[in-house]
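Researcher: Sequence recovery benchmark, item below. Answer with residues only.
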């Protein structure tokens, strides 16, 4: 799969075009390093990562059969990181009752010196629509840090319902779910592929 291949795209009425392409752990490592070590990315838990650490982590993810990573673009420029995973195989094994069609998701918005109003919400909306573009995806599962109140509000805005805290090795997380119907009701969008 080429890293120039656009896997999903949507146009936000106010902010323009958002799209998603495959991540290249070598070509994108320097870009990602700047994102994941930025102070605003503290919940990503890679603050002290070196460039080789980031390259290794994303080599591991892109080679894993149950974990994928993507670069999100805004108007053609890298602007966010998106990861999907099978929560019955990674991250949440034994912490909840997995269902067929569950997709785990993480996203990280790149730091910016010129923030755009509504940008992060447009990113999570794009990420969710991209996940639901796969007809096999029935429900998105997330496990953000219980203290990450900003992401809890964003999750709720796109249809997530918090279920309960769960204890993971690296954090206390808030297990939350969003079905396709909940996403569509919250945003008026459907997951449609390009």
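Model:
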């Amino acid at each position: 799969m080429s890293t120039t291949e656009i896997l999903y795209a949507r146009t936000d009425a106010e902010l323009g075009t958002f799209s998603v392409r495959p991540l290249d752990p070598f070509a994108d490592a320097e870009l990602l390093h700047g994102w994941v070590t930025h102070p605003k990315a503290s919940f990503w838990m890679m603050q002290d990562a070196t460039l080789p650490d980031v390259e290794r982590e994303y080599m591991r993810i892109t080679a894993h059969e149950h974990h994928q990573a993507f670069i999100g673009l805004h108007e053609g420029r890298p602007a966010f990181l998106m990861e999907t995973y099978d929560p019955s195989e990674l991250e949440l094994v034994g912490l909840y009752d997995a269902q067929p069609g569950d997709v785990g998701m993480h996203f990280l918005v790149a730091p910016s010196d010129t923030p755009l109003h509504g940008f992060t919400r447009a990113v999570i909306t794009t990420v969710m629509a991209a996940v639901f573009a796969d007809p096999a995806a029935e429900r998105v599962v997330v496990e953000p840090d219980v203290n990450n109140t900003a992401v809890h509000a964003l999750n709720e805005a796109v249809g997530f319902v918090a279920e309960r805290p769960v204890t993971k090795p690296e954090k206390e997380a808030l297990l939350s779910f969003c079905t396709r119907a909940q996403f569509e009701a919250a945003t008026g969008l459907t997951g449609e592929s390009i």
